[in-house]
Amino acid sequence: MITLLDYGAGNVRSVTNAIERLGETVKVALNGDDILAAEKLVFPGVGAFGNMMQILQERKFSEPLKTYLQSDRPFFGICLGMQALFEESEEALGIKGLGVFKGRVVRFATDLAVPHIGWNGIKILQPATIFNGLEGEEKFYFVHSYHVSPEQEDVRLTTTDYGYEFVSAVQRGNIIGTQYHPEKSGPAGLKLLKNFIESTNQADAPKTLTGPTQLAKRIIACLDVRANDRGDLVVTKGDQYDVREEGEVRNLGKPVELARRYYEEGADEITFLNITGFRDFPLEDMPMIEVLKQTSQNVFVPLTIGGGIRNYTDKNGRHYSALEVADAYFRSGADKISIGSDAVAIVEEYLKTGKRTGSSAIEEISKVYGSQAVVISIDPRRVYVDSPESVVQQVIPTTIPGPDGEAYCWYECTIRGGREGRPVDAITLAQVCEKLGAGEILLNCIDRDGTNSGFDIELINAVKSAVTIPVIASSGAGNADHFLEVFSRTDAESALAAGIFHREEVPIGAVKDFLDNKVEIRPA
Ligand code: 1PR
Q: What would the pLDDT profile of 277-293 be if each residue is shown by its tens digit?
């Protein structure tokens, strides 16, 4: 039996699902005695360091955890669960870690996008049973802005390159910690967890990479979900956001089944967008929560969910904060949440006052779950203008002239699924959201959505060059070449598509086969 330390934040469901999938039972530690009684302890930390350490203290978990670790019984810390083993973190100066390993947790000091999100390789420095049976070339899923910096060389288990080489796993005796998420790293990650569960004493000689590891460009499958007119939850897909055909909501399949198919075909991430979330409050629309729960039982890559994440007061006067909505999603299996319409309202408010309120959904959720868990979904539409001076918004020159030959455009943010335009532009929106704590931009484009005509390269370059967080290019993919184009002509970290995958015009495997040897990818 595996004991799981759940300190209340983040997605522990995925770790439980992964362990149960491997045939092992999971007991959640409810108090210090449960920790002390554990035979094998897994600590899947997600969120922010300060918040985690405070909760460990409040729940009186810290001392039993230290005692357990001193006894050298099997321990697996994942992400923050590894960082907690160190003395302190730059993420929350003044708050002490468990101090089991000497050293600190530091923020990435690189010009590359931070958080470091996606699939990267590892260089194995010493034998460890968790790597038995692996080829050494596998990629694992990372999502973090901080990494450990151990004082002692001999605890370094793996390193990874991102701007520079950092320690991505540690080991001392039976204590193991990885920065990467095995529960989100597909078959390779499951193998690693299986090795921990079965723990033989014999570690194979490690096979490892020689050169630097490379972060893969991610291919993301997106499922727009809503109820059709009969009330069934379906995956739908619009043309420029219009999801109806001859009056009916297009039905392209069942969300849980499709997500599972995309996982098996090699999707690096799966995104669900509850596209009517702006009018049907998600906590009253429990089917989406159920979709997440069921999906996370079979899908071991990251899951993002968006739609309806905002403050809400129901008809009985009960107030829900956006954080509560996000909590429900995280606890049901989401790794990231995506905020659309509410981000526009937050940014408009910020632009009026120039001040943070500290209470916006972006700030509150990133404080608890970490910025890497907060994606901003932007739904922009091109507006052509004659000159950069003609509007206050950020304008770019365009090689695709407007209907009257205009040589400039700006990107108007929309809300409520493209129904309403707002005077804020996509570049400003992305910049302000980054400032408020968002960790990634999902950059849609209404003009390209569902057109199969390729990504809007000008939009992606304009937004990508204005922020330091990762950008997901979205809307318009019609063939595998469009993915090569977006990765060669922009610095987007990932590309998302919907229609071509749902209609099986170009399967994910075909996109990856086409990109292989041209772009760094995780093979399907
Ligand atoms: O505003 O926080 O409630 O979130 C609602 C979310 O639902 C937003 O992320 C918004 O993008 C999304 N949404 C709302 N209405 C629609 C619609 O289509 N009517 N879908 C919609 C947006 C856009 C993409 C799509 C790509 C790729 N979907 O994510 O998957 O454009 O499509 P393609 O490859 O077929 O071209 P809130």
A: 777 777 776 788 999 99
Write out 93-120 in H/E/C secondary structure.
Answer: CCCECCCCCCEEEEECCCCCCCCEEEEE
Atom 17, ligand 1: residue with shortest CA distance: 241
**223 CA: nearest ligand 1 atom:** 30
> Does residue 238 line the site of ligand 1, with CB under 6 A?
yes
Check if 417 has its Cβ closer than 6 Å to any atom of ligand 1. yes
d(CA 207, CA 448): 44
Ligand 1 near 475 CB (within 6 A): yes
Cβ of 447 closer than 6 Å to ligand 1, yes or no, is no
* 461-484 per-position pLDDT tens digit: 999 999 999 999 999 999 999 999
For the CA of 476, the closest atom of ligand 1 is 36
Helix axes 62-70, 49-58, angle to 10 degrees: 90
Distance (angstroms) between ligand 1 centre and the Cα of 312 equals 21
| Alpha helices in 61-201, H assignment, sequence order | 62-70, 80-83, 186-198
Exposure letters 185-222 (e unless 16+ CB within 10 A, then b)? bbebbbbbbbbbbeeeeeeeebebbeeebbbbbbbbbb
Q: How far is the CA of 275 from the centre of ligand 1 (A)?
A: 6
Q: What is the pLDDT of residues 67-107, one digit of tens each?
A: 999 998 999 999 999 999 999 999 999 999 999 999 999 99
Question: Is ligand 1 within 6 A of the CB of residue 498?
Answer: yes
- Are 223 and 272 within 8 A, CB to CB? yes
Rounded Cα distance, 225 and 244, in Å: 13
User: What is each CA distance from 359 to 348, 364, 431, 467, in whole angstroms?
Assistant: 15, 6, 18, 22
pLDDT of residue 285: 62
CA distance 85 to 97: 6
Residue pair 53/84 in contact (Cβ under 8 Å)? The answer is yes
Taking the CA of residue 275 as reference, the ligand 1 atom at the shortest distance is 7
What is the 274 CA–ligand 1 centroid distance (Å)?
8
Distance CA 101, CA 148 (A): 10
Q: Which residues are catalytic?
A: 79, 181, 183, 224, 379
